[in-house]
Amino acid sequence: MKKIATVDAVGHVICHDITRIVKDVVKDVAFKKGHIVKEEDIPMLLSIGKEHLYVWEKTEGMLHENEAAEVLYDICKNENIKPSEVKEGKIELIADIDGLFRIDVERLDKINELDEIIIAARHTNYPVKKGEKLAGTRVIPLVVEEEKLKKAQESVGDIPLMELLPYKNMKAGIVTTGSEVYHGRIKDTFTPVVIEKLSKYNISVCKHKIVNDESNMIVDAINELRENGADLIVCTGGMSVDPDDLTPSAIRESGAKIISYGAPVLPGAMFLLGYFEDGTPIMGLPGCVMYAKATIFDLILPRVAAGVKITKKDIARMGNGGLCLSCKVCIYPNCGFGKGV
Question: Which CATH class is domain 2-55?
């Protein structure tokens, strides 16, 4: 690459995109990398402040910004992810399906600690829609040492940095616990909320059981749902530590291994998650899920829907970002709630 006066650039190849910005009118690439300068281009180039141009001279061991962006994209790409066109040394990664976006944060940090290289991404474990942006890659200078890109490749290894997991076509069974609902004293307003949230992730309800506050009834209902082919079991009601709230103990009696009873998330502290031996997840939902716009259920459900096995450590790490601010107008998931990990 060499620098020459614009008036002397006719016939030379521009080595980087040149952007033209007119306030409230246009912001776009006026001349793309690889454009051969013509006599009629000179007035336009001068009008956007380009008294000099950098024209391309290939140098051994150096990569142009567009070439470097391609290398960074290769580090990130995975199934269900597609690239945008290379523009001004940047490639954006686009979701090709609805799904759960996940990124290895530790390896991402290693890349971004290298000089002159960046990968900017959405938060990991973020539910996305087809066509949405996932990340962007670029280098800071117009040309960069090829050795730096090799270091980035070595720090990532053979496993892609990012993944976009499709949601499984799951069937859920719901157990509603509470004498007031069982005896018809009040209307069940909890189950419709759960069904609506499940439907966002392609989860249908195969069976719904309403039971009294009795351990044996809760256990029998859970077993019946499993026998009816439920891929996920959701229990509502009776989730506090009050002596007459028996849902947590009944879930244990049903044979599920409890991963966590309690989560560092507000709202949603009294959340329970467990798994049966065959991998079927079971959740105990606290009452806040019925009335709060966003809760622990909204953080956990996309992962479960994508078939991700959740650990005790995963739940413990949710404390960072686990406080919902209960905004008057809820904009979740486009906010900080649940974005710590």
Answer: alpha beta
